[in-house]
Amino acid sequence: MTAEGIADVRVGRDQLRDELWQWVRGGAEGGGGFLVVEGEPGAGRTDFVRDALTRAAALGCRVRYAAAAAPGTELPLQAALDCLHPRGPDRAAAVALLREAQEALRPGGALLAAVDLLTAAVEEWCVQRPLLLVLDDAQWADAASLQLWRRLAGRAVAGRLPLLLAATRRPLPTRPELEELCATPGGRTLRLGPLSGAEAAGLVRDLLGAEPGPRLREAAGQAGGNPRLLRELLAHWSGLLRVDADRAELLVPEEELPPPPASLTREPGRLPAPARALLRHAALLGPAFTGRELALVRGGPARELLVELEEPVAAGLLTDTDGSLRFRHPALRLALYAETPEALRAALHQDAARAFADAGLDPARTAGQLVRGGRLAPWAVRWLADSAPALIAGAPGAAAELLERAIAQGDPRERETRDALEERLADAALMLRRPESVDLLGTLRARTTDPDRRASVDFKLVSALMIQGDMARSLAVTERALAEEFPSVALRLRLEACRVLALADLHRAAEAYALAEAVVVRARRLRDPLCGAEAHHAASYALFHLGRGRDSLRHVAEGIACARRSPDANDMRLLLLANQAEGHMRFDEPGTVAAALREARGLAAATRSTGRLVVTEARLAEFHYRLGDWDEALAGVDRACALRVSDGWLPVVVHGLRALVLGHRDEREAAGADLAGLPADAFATPTARRYASHVLLARALLAERDGRPADALEALAPALEDGVEEAVAYDRPWVLSEIVRLALECGETATARAAVERCGRAARTLAEYPGPALALLRCRGLFAQDPELLAQAVARGERGGWPLVLGHTLEDLAVARAWHGDLAGARSALTRAAAAYEDLGARWDIARADARLRSLGVRRGSRSARRRPANGWEALTPAELKVALLVAQGRSNPEIASALFLSPRTVQTHVSHILAKLQVRSRAAVAAQAAGATGVPGVSGTGGASGP
């Protein structure tokens, strides 16, 4: 694939194109006009006006087109001549006059004669039929051509000629003749801005012939909405793309992509030398930077940047957003950065770090430069020791990397300095949830003699052990710490809360809750927000293990209320919010889940808590998977994977979830690769085993897809084990229902019966929650092939709001009805199941359902009969319908994103699809259609005003 080979694909700008076509239509009907099409290099100006040429020719207009050559042409009127007379005797006559003008001492007469000759040709053509003239890249045109174009533009807008005149231009360079032309009274200007996210995804789809996956859509943002740049990037990544029948995806995460091609720096190369140097310095500062930071790197006052910034900003290379400067095309920054020699880059980063530190900037900004600057200078080690607490809070990853570097460089004989650095490294590792924090804290504890400090190190060590899932050792450390005397009442209370957590996880939940009640009472007396939050967390955890979900969530809510009273409790607040989201997800309460995750994500981002942010992203991915927004689920998994932390259960969740989505979409190779990426000890901890369901289901799905149902059944066998962790695993009942289905297909009735029995016990253990009860109905309905039980499961699935669960129960109901001879009822259930699967993009599930029912004599009919309509309200998917209803109420995209807990990019994609399917151009038109719609659930009577 080459950039040249895909240059003719038309992209986006439908509204602008409609304006252009209306302008052309007016000219074809005898009107006149002048139009300027402005856009940055690569914006698609040429493709845009070629549409006008094609349309005008089809309407009977004469059309002429030329692109002005780059500077260097000496012949006056060269650009106009190329447009009007590219060849032939008329060109020769005009060239003769222009040569005469060049050679004459006073060239005015010959030049005016040439202008009159060209003007006369235009007038003669206009007498015959309407005329469209297009001068592309007018910024390079000679002054005489621009003056002639201005003369013709005046006649066109005055209506004296059936003439349409157009010129395209870049923002730079500016010239007096060009600006005078563009300011012609009565003329119009269309500006081609960057493609929206949905338009960029559409371009990728057109170029590759497949819908872009989440990674590719995210990486496409490097082009900043520039079509040519996006084409070049796709060509550059061609060896790293996997293109299936209807999905195109990157094989590696965005951060592992090679640097963009060096050709991307050609536009900055046209700028003056000072502006080019400024951009190279700016590329060192990351995606966003302030004017002060750039001035510090440049070594001068900020006022001196005004002139140097003028052209990069005017050219659209840099943008000013919320007080920060950004490269509008992230790929350009990466290309400029790669262009600077590595040794020089390191030295420049060191200089920038020193300047930032001396100026007292945010430690995270200084650290960002030091990380890329190689060996730490003595001043940098001193700065790191002083700034470590603030740096760990704001940028724990950078802090850990720099602290490791400083320790490795240091003199082992400087024990006091080394101890201080190692303690800070342990704090950073704990914040990042890394396993090395356990050894670091154990070593520090052995060296510490002060009682309060030793208790503080013990508390951190207990936390580190819990993160790694070693609850037995964490209990032992807690008991040892509590047996010692130390002054801090608050610290003792926090350690007692840790003991409750460890006991609950070690299957001593009743004992843990008895202790927790006393801890909560004492925390209330102490009136310490952090202690209160940790006490309620301990009580909620013990109650969860006792199977008292609602009581557990009440303590979670009280803990969050305590944590909100103090920034010192932000980390505990984040943990409690994640638990709140998980708990309410078990009760099928998505609104509360969304609110908790929204608060958690905002807080984690504001406090730069990488460890908690990755947990939030994993929970969000799970939430979107259950809601049926699988693209957003995959995007969340990618965000979680990009945040490198070491919670043992996270790889199980994120790899399992991604493999499961890809498997349902029948992307077998990619799903298998994700499962292969799991570490060998992935299920070593009880917590990891508790979250194993996605991995088990994905393994079974791939085996069944390959025609190996017995292997699929074996893959799910761990769910039959009656360990304590498995008993409290919320998703275990659903896995057991899949075992029943597969076992019956394999003829293993005893296995199916055992799964039904175990599902019954699990449902009783988790009796508060609706999901296990639904799974039990499915198990019993499958085992007995009982349509009534399966219809009850469908009803529960509809109430729960999880589309995949509903699809499975409908499919099972269709099979049971077919077994009982109710073919019409079976076909109805199958059609509904297939519709649910189609909305998810679950191609494998559609194929499996069709195959199961086909063998029973049931088909859905022709494809055309079951395909969703192409246009109108019924064409909208459930996700699009939700967005459309909020658009009709006048909600903005950010408001919709917040309400539905989607990314702004996903909302924009939905809005673009909605406008296309409803065949309207504005949000106001969506509201108008919604007000008059009938027969579509949730639409009729929807009111609301909306701006265009």
Any key phrases for this structure?
948 residues; 3-stranded mixed β-sheet; mainly alpha; 5-stranded parallel β-sheet
**How many strands appear in the DSSP assignment?**
11
Distance between the termini: 39 Å
Proportion of strand residues: 5-15%
Low-confidence stretches: 1-11, 941-948
Question: Structural class, judged by helices and strands?
Answer: mainly alpha
Would you kindly provide a written description of the structure presented here, covering whatever features stand out?
This protein has 948 residues and is mainly alpha-helical. The protein is 65% helix and 5% strand. The protein has a five-stranded parallel sheet, with helices on both faces. The chain has a three-stranded mixed sheet with strand order 6-8-7. It has a three-stranded antiparallel sheet with strand order 9-11-10. Helix 46 (893-900) crosses helix 47 (904-918). It is globular. The model is unreliable at 1-11 and 941-948 (pLDDT under 50).
